[in-house]
Input
Amino acid sequence: MSRILLFIAAYGMWVLLNWVPDVQHLAAGIFVAALVALLTGDLFLERPHLLRNPIRYWYFFFYYLPVFLWECLKANIDVAYRVLHPQRPIHPGIVKIHTDLKSDAAITFLANSITLTPGTMSVDVDKANQTLYIHWIDVKAKDMESATQHIAGKFEYILKEIFE
Amino acid sequence: MINVFDIIGAVLITGGLIFDLLGCIGLVRLPDVYNRLQAATKCVTLGTCGILLGVIFVVGLNATGVRALLCIVFVILTAPVSAHVIARGAHRSGIKLWEGSVVDQYAEDREGEV
Output
């Protein structure tokens, strides 16, 4: 199941890369996608049955993406402010946050989202203890609960709906 | 004849260039590797995506535009990961945080391991 989905995804990517498609490219793509699917298919998805639930797509496109893009824009304005301000207003530090997410995909998305949101960047993930180490350019809270609220609060419950 | 898509594309490319420039200024002005990574990752990701989106608006969804779209997806997916790996590698190889830093719970937790 995971291999078939990877084949479809790889083939779609190949067609997009060779836009506009013609017969030669489409035929060569079958071999390339099959090779990729054969070699790495078992790594692609852990639980392919989750993809069948349309609510997850709905959450991803209409809930996660707008929040993410808005935060991304805010992050850039925030960095611009800190960089251009003559006094350079930063209080950096590395804090620890806790996450309830368990699957690899969810943690990856959470860490990536944190990196692209205002003032924070993931430094390390400790999956066994369910903690993330976050470099925060303007530390507002040092204890774990309120730091988690500040940093991951916006994304965690959305990602839980999508991936768990 | 003025094309609306050309104007939108030009605005997006200009915005992207401004954010890229701010990211580079951040690289020079901020004190240590972690803060610099913050500026570099955020600004360069959005700036590059802005430029690519502007390219899509200017050229339309033909061979070039579709590749630009794929580039946006891959830049958004990979830039944070590379930043995370660089930061982790820097910390593990013993690079200190800037002296004005408030707290470093990562170092506190890793004292036992080393």
Q: What stands out?
A: The two ends of chain A are 19 Å apart (CA to CA). Residues 53-163 of chain A form one domain. Chain A touches chain B at residues 13, 16-17, 19-20, 72-73, 75-76, 79-80, 82-84, 88, 90-96, 108, 111-112, 115-116, 119-124, 133, 135, 137, 139, 142 (CB under 8 Å).
